[in-house]
Every structure is written in C-alpha cells, then in structure tokens.
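Aim 2, interim progress: modelling of the iron/sulfur cluster-bound target.
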Amino acid sequence: MEPTLPIMESFHSLQGEGAHNGKSAFFIRLAGCNVACSWCDTKESWLEQQHAKQSVLTLAKYTAEAQREGASFVVITGGEPLQHDLNPLCKAIKDTTSTINSHSIPIHLETSGVYKMSGTINWITLSPKIHLPPRKELLKKCQEIKVIIHNEEDLLFAEEMAHQASEKEKNSGSDQEPMLYLQPGWKSEKGKTLAIDYVKKNSKWTLSMQTHKWLGVA
Ligand code: SF4
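Predicted structure of the complex, ligand included:
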C-alpha cells in the first residue's frame, strides 16, 4: 500500500526565512507536533488525527508541478516533520521530479531536531527549542540554525547551540559551520529589539524576519 502522511497544507510560495529568503519554493506542511512551544503560531498543526492523509506519490506529483512552475526547492515543514518517517516521501519526490522534470528537486527540511533524522535531505534548517534541545546528530548535520527570540534567555541558548554546532564541526574535521540566524518571535516587540541589538553587536549572527508574513503572502 502507498505510504501516506497527515497533511495540513501544501502550497507554492516564497521562502520567507533564513538563507533562502525570497526564493520560490513549494511547501509541504505535515501535521503532528509534540514539542508544544508555548508561543507556537501553528498550534492547529499539533494533532495529526485532525488532518487528512495524502499519499507520498500525490505530494510528489504536486511538488513536480510546482517545480515546473518555478519552485527551486521543496520545504518539508510542520508541525514537527521528523515525528514521521520521511524516507518514503523523500524517495517519491526524488523519483517523481527526476522522471517528470528530468532533474530532482532539492529537498529542504525545517525541524526542531528533537526526533531522529530520516529522509534524504539537501538542506536542514534547525530551529532548536530551549525547553526541548535538539539531538546532537542534527546539530552536526544542519546547514543553518535559526533561533526564535522572545527574551534574554533565548540569546544565551542561541550561543550555546552555535557553540555545540562548532564543537561538532571541529570534531568531525569538517570546515562547514552552519549559518546562524536570530528570528524575533512573531509580534514580540521585546524579541525584535533584542534580536536587532544582538545582531548589530555580534557579526556571526544574521537577522531572519518572517518576510512572507510581513508581505502577507502564504
Ligand atoms: S516545534 Fe514548531 S510546530 Fe511544534 S510547537 Fe514548536 S513552533 Fe509549533
């Protein structure tokens, strides 16, 4: 039987955050999250039973269609996508896009890093949460770290995550350190002020804004 996943939504838009901000992307938002951040802006994603399932092949076909219309990558997000085994979805996307469009689309993942890694992913955005820190393997593998800022404690946590990621890189002999982003919590005036001040004084960090929300696009 074709594997299925609970889906909140899938849509073609612009990436609004981090290193790929402003680029055309197809989003697959999986339902289900047990991380339970108090400030979560997608709480409706938490209960996967409330969302219909779709086959990975259908999702892969939607992705191929978006690729034909200009999407340069697909973002698997949530919820917390790693609550699911992402291997069947990633395989279906690679196979379908390379068959229909002659080249496979890069796959990006947005995760808190709490659960075990699965799937073949080209770009990992790790958004670690202070109350449930990420697994070491995700700190080692990710291409960018994005910490949401609401208060001073979040800045200390961000530095701790950057430190752990750079220690991991030294130990693995790799010279690739993740890109570092601070993102103010949505509508958090304090978070905005703290993040801007911190980035001004600490050049290794870059400010990430949720530009899709400011622009009013999906
Ligand atoms: S990990 Fe993401 S989806 Fe889950 S509770 Fe936190 S912010 Fe919400």
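The mean pLDDT is 93. Helices lie at 56-68, 87-101, 136-141, 152-172, 189-201, 211-215.
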